[in-house]
Design goal:
Blueprint: H1 3-16, E1 33-39, E2 53-59, E3 62-66, H2 72-81, E4 91-93, H3 99-102, H4 105-111, E5 116-120, H5 125-133, E6 137-141, E7 143-148, E8 151-155, E9 166-170, E10 173-178, H6 185-196, E11 201-207, H7 215-222, E12 226-230, H8 235-245, E13 257-258
Parallel strand pairs: 3-4, 4-5, 5-6, 10-11, 11-12
Antiparallel strand pairs: 1-2, 1-13, 2-3, 7-8, 8-9, 9-10
Helix pairs in contact: 2-4
């Protein structure tokens, strides 16, 4: 091999060491990645949309599935398309009893029962019995508490139906993830702030359950930095948030990846 060719390969090898290779969907420099898996809105046209909600939260301490949508086959197919193995999930959190958030759980547990499922304590006994029959553990939740490093459940807030939401404590502020926010999205945010004794809200995402348009200004008053309303929020409210928040509005839907 001549000297010129040797120099070429040496230079090429050095350059390759510093190429900015793209991150896999499950990797994040900040250590957290949120992936919308099930929604009636679409962010990725390769995923199937359907009425309901589910998202996956990947963190160094483990991976959480928040809600399971209405149909296991859609949930699992969308997870596969996003290269998320069901076996990688450590914890499952179900926000409330409605089928479009709970319906995929049974089928998911048939793929991975080595999880702990956190369900509102108001769930009927049959829900816990189903989880146990599938071989998984479950924890009834009534009060707010920490369930993983930097991750909290708000505990049950009154609806109807009673509902829990997730809160993630990050360096940029709190991330609040709701299934439907039947107790009221502003009340859910207030509970998150009280639970963590922190006021800064970086992101609120999920279903906001058709709040009045005045909710947009209430978010501004609270100081919510970014919003990603989806599922049962309603188009009118989503559009109002989009106009008010501009670049800080995230058009959420199945396939969305957020790396705070």
């Amino acid at each position: 091999m001549n000297r010129a060719l040797i120099c070429f390969w040496a230079i090429l090898g050095t350059c390759l060491l510093f190429l900015p290779f793209p991150l896999h969907a499950g990797e994040s420099p900040a250590g957290i990645t949120i992936i919308s898996i099930y929604d009636n809105y679409q962010s990725n046209q390769n995923l199937e949309s359907a009425w309901g909600f589910a998202c996956v939260i990947k963190m160094p301490a483990g991976t959480i599935l928040f809600d399971t949508g209405g149909k296991a086959e859609i949930l699992l197919a969308n997870m596969e398309k996003m290269q998320i193995q069901p076996e990688s999930i450590d914890k499952v959190v179900i926000s409330h009893i409605h089928q479009d958030h709970l319906g995929g759980l049974k089928g998911f547990l048939e793929r991975n029962h080595s999880v702990t499922v956190f369900i509102p304590s108001s769930f009927p006994d049959a829900a816990g019995e189903m989880i146990r029959r599938k071989g998984a553990a479950f924890v009834p939740v009534s009060e707010g508490k920490k369930i993983s490093d930097s991750v909290y459940t708000t505990g049950e807030l009154p609806g109807p139906p009673a509902e829990q939401s997730l809160v993630i404590d990050t360096e940029k502020g709190l991330i609040v993830i709701t299934g439907c926010a039947h107790p009221g999205i502003v009340d859910v945010i207030a509970r998150a702030q009280t639970l963590t004794a922190k006021s800064r809200i970086y992101l609120v995402m999920g279903g906001f359950h058709h709040p009045p348009l005045s909710v947009v200004q209430k978010f501004r008053k609270i100081g919510v930095e970014k919003v990603a309303p989806s599922h049962c929020t309603g188009d009118a409210v989503r559009n109002a948030f989009a106009r008010e928040y501009g670049d800080n509005f995230i058009a959420s839907g199945a396939g969305l990846i957020i790396r705070p």
